[in-house]
Amino acid sequence: MKIELKYQACNIADALCRNINNNFESISFEIMNSGEILIKIILSELTEQEEEYIDDFIAEFSSAQERDCVLKPLIEVGHSSPLPNIVYRKV
Q: DSSP string covering the chain, please?
């Protein structure tokens, strides 16, 4: 499972490269028992620009998968706890 976590963290990081700005506080994920992937995005502010970035990011990440396994992302604005596997955290 550790290899799968690292593989998916790399896929998420690759998809994020062009789809992030200063309003992103944290991006984390969890692989569910069913094999589906849940992504949680924590923002300081949600505008139309972030919505476009999230749509593009999820589309790029989903296309890197061998099957349809990416769930609709959890999007939180303000303070919230990330999922167990953190890919990005604003310092």
A: -HHHHHHHHHHHHHHHTTS--TTEEEEEEEE-TTS-EEEEEEES---HHHHHHHHHHHHHHHHTSSSS-BPPPEEEESS-PPPSEEEEE--
**How far is 61 from 88, CA to CA, in rounded Å?**
15
Residues in the chain: 91
Amino acid found at 24: F
Predicted TM-score (pTM) of this structure? 0.93
pLDDT for 26-77, tens place per residue?
999 999 999 999 999 999 999 999 999 999 999 999 999 988 999 999 999 9
For 47, how many CA atoms within 13 A lie in the half-sphere containing its CB? 8
